[in-house]
Design brief:
By secondary structure, the chain is α+β, with helices and mostly antiparallel strands. The protein is 32% helix and 18% strand. Helix 19 links the parallel strand 22 and strand 23 (676-678).
Length: 948
């Protein structure tokens, strides 16, 4: 303890360590559940609840820098405030600990990923504890804990053993579907009775319905990482988000989640949650709902039965389709490509190849090197090649050539388009390049005429009239676009050629990774390749020990390679004898692992009931913390704070898993997170030398407005905080110089929570001085004795106190921590000027700052004579009588210039205020006897007099 009792870094460190020990020893932040724990405490059980969450941190080896804790401090402040306002608060933090960084470190060093990950977690926990974060540590876990991922595997099996019933609009157990097939209530794809199908055939049928299924599908193959990636893990320029390696399209057998079955509900339920509109918009765009029609085009020689289905939102332009384009990966291409070019094939269509097969093979290889983003880019030139096949336009019987081109993606729509070059800009460019015909079927209203050969670009209005669109049995001429769409839909459906439908941009979620460090799939395969779920009693299926952690990586530029998983090398683990109900048999385990997103899809539920070995979560506990209630029709976490970068990945996946669990009756909440708040980013200055390389920010000097490193000038810019930019500031540095409470206050005071802000170490001292002034308002720095007195505060102080209480309460409720600190500072400055500080004023200050700076608040509260932790104290309540000003200043203007200021009651009427203003001596003098044309009164603060 400092001899002078001055609040400095050493005293702050001592106070903070003691109170952190106290909280841990007394279980201060342990939150009882509504059953069992609260059964004998009806008063506490009757309190309102708040479930407050941070997004899962991934424990990196570098530990925390000062940018990381922003959201954690914010939720801690809010949780402490809610406790003090009478809520049962659940607030804890676990760790999202599976993932590629630990595996890459294992490859480099031979250290088992669990060893390095657990060491990183210990570092994080030490730093988070030092911040004084009030977590219920009993509820903390890591996704790598076997008793956690046991339930991740259990949820996977629930999804695997479910299908989406369109009639009921929800997921149901797969056994119900099997019973329907067995009873003949649902026909099999080929019409044969279920009993006549082999086990392999039955498995194939069910795979088309399961919400988790394995299939051969186009994937994002990254040779440089040796794994496949989800669409969301590929950057806009077609490279891996991690490692920046090229990503190629390949067809591999992978596990998928049928998230597309929930597309409509994922869209509709966005209206029930309190999320930033920007995040909702990103999800709506990613899901990408569009209304249109599916239309079948017969392809190839007549009688071969090949039909390509296209999805279009402009079925009104069907008569304008003059060619068809398939994605290079389309499964029908090989079946329709003829042996030789048809007679009269245009030379520009062949790409210079001798046969259609050669042309298609060469173009497919070229397309595989491009990302989806590159393929969809609005390039001035479109590439492609004729397949040698023709399709038949169903409305007029015209034979149209079938091309493949990379601007059509297999993952969107059906992987095939009917090309209407007169009315689609991309088709227009392609048609010009390949000298294909164009037909105007939507009449331009901009004077360009109806000959596309004379146009500079396509005409794609949705408000025009249809022309040149008539054939036997169907005429669209003269109709509006919407009328034509409806007529085409009816015509297609009557003839069995198509139907009006809804399409989504959303694709099923690729759920396999060729890695070691992830949750093993609880799936085994029999000798016929049929997938079987492991029985629940065999969970968790734990990762085996292996010698080589790395997936086999390849030349990053070689798209023709295929993955080899680390688990596949452990033969003893891969091949296993099990009795799954029909006697012991030999099985092969799945050797892919789940993506790192799996564990974060449901962690909010484990926080509720972390030690339940019998159920995913007790239904009553889940209903208490997350169930629907007034204003929260789909339930969920009360406040979820995290970065906006997770708008599509984590948030969409978690919503999907929650809805499946809801449908199957395991939870009462259809949404995982009711209120979402995206905190901004703390940035730091990056200094670069003449070569543009970052230099250590801590070693840069500022002289006369210039910045120097080792005597040489450097430039300064704001950027992320990171080791590569050499601008990391560790929280430990701030702890040592000022203490944790100062760091907490500084990060909350830097600006609005949802706005990015620059870190400036020199500015931290401002909040340090606030705490020093608060300390001196309560204690004598020389003796450590309490100096407050029992006198009642005077009226000025009472008004300052209650205005601060009122403002801080509103600010904390709305997460406006920076303005709350400003109000506390204002009150603290007022108290500093009082010669004898009243106890009521000092205690009000301590209670107001307690959520923000809990250590110093605890210390001062104890020294003020209180025996219990300040955490359990009630937050002050403002007296309305003292919040309203006794008087306000009213500005009086004449001809737009201020001529007087009147002190009036806040409740003054407009008539009274007008009379007072007109009677004021300065106003009378300013008017100089002029007549008054108008008096504008905005009581109680403004009177504007307009002379005639």
């Amino acid at each position: 303890m400092s001899e002078t009792h001055k609040y400095d870094a050493a005293l702050a460190a001592d106070i903070e360590a003691r109170w952190q020990d106290y909280w841990e020893r007394h279980g201060t932040y342990e939150t009882p559940n509504p059953i069992g724990d609260l059964a004998d405490d009806p008063e506490q059980a009757a309190r309102p609840k708040k479930f407050i969450m941070d997004m899962f941190p991934y424990p990196s080896g570098a530990g925390l820098h000062v940018g990381h804790p922003l959201g954690y401090i914010a939720t801690d402040v809010y949780a402490r405030f809610q406790r003090m306002t009478g809520h049962n608060v659940l607030h804890t933090l676990g760790f999202d600990a599976f993932g590629l960084p630990a595996e890459q470190y294992a490859v480099q060093t031979g250290t088992h990923p669990r060893v390095s990950t657990e060491a990183n977690i210990r570092t994080y926990k030490t730093q988070l504890r030092r911040l004084g974060l009030g977590y219920d540590q009993r509820r903390s876990f890591a996704t790598i804990d076997a008793d956690y991922y046991r339930w991740t595997q259990w949820i996977f099996l629930r999804i695997f053993n479910s299908w989406y019933d369109r009639d009921a609009d929800r997921a149901r157990p797969i056994d119900e579907l099997i019973a329907r097939f067995e009873a003949g209530e649902r026909a099999t794809p080929d019409g044969r009775p279920w009993s006549e199908l082999t086990a392999v055939e039955r498995a194939d049928v069910l795979s088309g319905y399961r919400l988790a299924y394995a299939s051969d599908a186009p994937v994002n193959w990254c040779p440089g990482l040796g794994t496949v990636l989800a669409n969301e893990e590929v950057t806009a320029d077609g490279r891996s988000e991690r490692g920046n390696f090229p990503v190629f399209k390949a067809k591999l057998r992978q596990w998928n989640m049928r998230i597309t079955a929930y597309a409509d509900r994922l869209l509709d339920d966005l209206e029930t949650v309190d999320w930033p509109e920007a995040i909702k918009l990103q999800q709506r765009n990613w899901i990408g709902r569009s209304e249109g029609a599916r239309i079948g085009f017969r392809v190839g020689e007549e009688g071969d039965g090949s039909t390509v289905t296209v999805f279009t939102t402009r079925q009104d332009t069907l008569f304008g389709a003059t060619y068809m384009v398939l994605a290079p990966e389309h499964q029908l291409i090989d079946a329709v490509v003829p042996a030789a070019w048809p007679e009269g094939t245009h030379a520009v269509w062949t790409g210079g190849h001798a046969t259609p097969a050669d042309a298609v093979a060469a173009y497919r290889k070229q397309a595989a090197t491009k990302s989806d983003v590159e393929r969809q880019a609005d390039a001035k030139e479109k590439t492609g090649v004729f397949t040698g096949a023709f399709a038949v336009n169903p409305v007029n019987g015209e034979r149209v050539p079938v091309f493949i081109a990379d601007y059509v993606l297999l993952g969107y729509g059906t992987g095939a388009i009917m090309a209407v070059p007169a009315h689609d800009s991309r088709d227009f460019v392609f048609a010009r390049a390949f000298e294909l015909p164009m037909r105007c079927v939507v009449e331009p209203d901009d004077g360009r005429g109806t000959d596309p050969a004379m146009w500079e670009d396509a005409f794609n209005s949705k408000d025009a009239r249809i022309v040149n669109s008539a054939a036997e049995g169907l005429s669209l001429d003269g109709l509006t676009v919407s009328e034509a769409k409806a007529r085409v839909n009816s015509w297609l459906e009557e003839r069995g050629l198509g139907e009006g439908t809804v399409n989504f941009r959303l694709r099923d979620w690729l759920f396999s990774r060729q890695r070691y460090w992830g949750e093993p799939f609880p799936i085994v395969y029999d000798e016929d390749g049929v997938a079987h779920a492991l029985p629940e009693e065999l969970l968790p299926l734990e990762l085996p020990e292996i010698d080589d952690y790395s997936p086999r990586t390849f030349d990053p530029e070689d798209a023709d390679t295929r993955p080899e998983t680390p688990l596949s090398r452990n033969e003893e683990w891969v091949h296993v004898t099990l009795d799954l109900g029909d006697g012991p048999k030999r099985y092969r385990r799945e050797t892919n692992t789940m993506p790192n997103w799996a564990g974060s899809c449901w962690y909010q539920l484990r926080y509720l009931d972390p030690h339940n070995d019998e159920k995913l979560v007790d239904p009553e506990i889940e209903r208490y913390w997350m169930g629907p209630r007034e204003g929260m029709s789909t339930g969920g976490v009360d406040l979820y704070v995290g970065g906006a970068e997770h708008a599509v990945l984590h948030l969409l996946y978690a919503r999907f898993w929650q809805k499946v669990l809801f449908d199957l009756g395991h939870v009462s909440s259809a949404e995982p997170y009711h209120k979402l708040f995206n905190q901004g980013m703390i940035q730091a200055y990056v200094y670069r030398d003449s070569r543009g390389f970052p230099v250590p920010a801590a070693e840069v000097e500022e002289r006369d407005g210039a910045f120097l490193y080792e005597g040489q000038p450097v430039t300064r810019e704001l950027g992320k905080i990171g080791k590569s930019l050499k601008n990391v500031v560790a929280p430990d540095e701030i702890f040592a110089a000022y203490g944790a409470d100062t760091l907490r206050l500084y990060e909350m005071a830097m600006g609005p929570l949802d706005v990015s802000r620059p870190w400036e170490t020199r500015a931290v001292v401002g909040q340090y001085r606030l705490l020093q002034r608060l300390w001196r308002n309560v204690l004598d720095e020389a003796t450590g004795e309490v100096t407050v007195v029992g006198d009642e505060p005077d009226e000025v102080t009472l008004r300052a106190m209650h205005k601060a209480i009122d403002g801080v309460t509103q600010d904390l409720e709305q997460l406006r921590f920076n303005t709350a600190i400003a109000k506390i500072t204002e009150l603290n400055n007022h108290v500093t000027k009082i010669e004898r500080v009243p106890r009521a004023a000092a205690e009000t200050l301590v209670l107001l700052i307690a959520p923000l700076a809990p250590h110093i608040a605890e210390e001062l509260w104890r020294r003020l004579g209180h025996g219990e932790s300040v955490t359990g104290e009630a937050f002050p309540v403002a007296d309305p009588a003292y919040v309203v000003d006794e008087s306000v200043t009213c500005v009086v203007q004449v001809r737009g210039k201020v001529r007087a200021r009147l002190e009036v009651a806040p409740t003054v009427s407009e008539a009274e205020l007008e009379a007072l203003a007109l009677a004021d001596v300065a106003v009378v003098e300013a008017l100089g006897g002029a007549a008054i044309r108008k008096v504008i009164v905005r009581a109680p603060k403004l009177v504007n007099i307009v002379p005639a």
